[in-house]
Structures are given as structure tokens and as C-alpha cells.
Design a protein that fits this description.
CATH class: Alpha Beta
Largest sheet: 6 strands, mixed
Structural class: alpha+beta
InterPro entries: DUF4440 (IPR027843), NTF2-like_dom_sf (IPR032710)
Oligomer: single chain
Number of domains: 1
Number of helices: 3
Pfam family, one: DUF4440
Strand content: over 45%
Protein name: DUF4440 domain-containing protein
CATH topology: Nuclear Transport Factor 2, Chain: A
């Protein structure tokens, strides 16, 4: 695949992941990730999926929009690194929040399906 084709292919995978997250449905999110997926962010550090799911299930965190512009995709055998810029809106403990972040998702191919192993977020600095 060309770089353009890889970006288009993984843009579809990322969009499915986005839709799962904004559904705020843990079962739908689980369809996009491995059993040991973790979220890494600048405020919470390494957040295991169990903790992330508890926060979502309790309604402490609820996403309403999520988009990603895929800027780079590199595949290393059964591992893919997908890097882009993401924006989302959500509610955190009843407060509306917006995020503009650099995102790297690490994917692993399992049974012919790409599943996310790790999501790393870095806030975009305002100039």
C-alpha cells in the first residue's frame, strides 16, 4: 500500500474507534481494542482500560464528538503506528471540555483485524 492508501485505510479504522468512544458504550469500545489496551495522557499518566471503563460507566466522562486527521502510518509486521491530530468534546464530571491533541495509536493485528493496544495523547500547545 502507498502512504496515501495506508492513511485512508487507517482513517476508517480510527473513525470506527471514534464512533465507539462517542457511543460511551464500553462493549463497543472493547471491539476496537486489545484486552490490555492502555491510555497514556499528560494528566493521568498510564490509565489502564479498567479504570477508563469505570469512569465511562459511571458517567464521569462522556464524549460527544471525536475526530482525527491521520498524518502518519507506519507498519512493522503485525504492529502499526498511527499518528495524527485529534479533537474532541466531552463532559468530565459534569463540566464541558474540549481537547486538541496529538495522538499516537499503536495497533496490533489479531485474527486479521487491527486492534488498538495503546493510545498516547499530547495536548497541542496554543501559539
Amino acid at each position: 500500500m502507498t502512504d496515501k492508501e495506508l492513511k485512508e485505510y487507517f482513517s476508517c479504522i480510527e473513525e470506527n474507534f471514534n464512533l465507539a468512544v462517542i457511543s460511551n458504550n464500553v462493549d463497543k469500545i472493547k471491539e476496537c481494542i486489545t484486552e490490555d489496551w492502555v491510555l497514556v495522557d499528560s494528566q493521568g499518566g498510564i490509565i489502564p482500560q479498567e479504570r477508563f471503563f469505570q469512569i465511562v460507566e459511571k458517567g464521569l466522562l462522556s464524549h460527544s464528538t471525536m475526530t482525527k486527521e491521520i498524518l502518519r502510518v507506519k507498519i512493522y509486521g503485525e504492529i502499526a503506528l498511527v499518528t495524527g491530530r485529534g479533537k474532541n468534546t466531552a463532559t468530565w464530571q459534569g463540566q464541558n471540555i474540549e481537547a486538541d491533541e496529538w495522538i499516537t495509536d499503536v495497533y496490533k493485528k489479531e485474527n486479521e483485524k487491527w486492534l488498538c493496544v495503546l493510545t498516547h495523547l499530547t495536548p497541542v500547545k496554543n501559539s
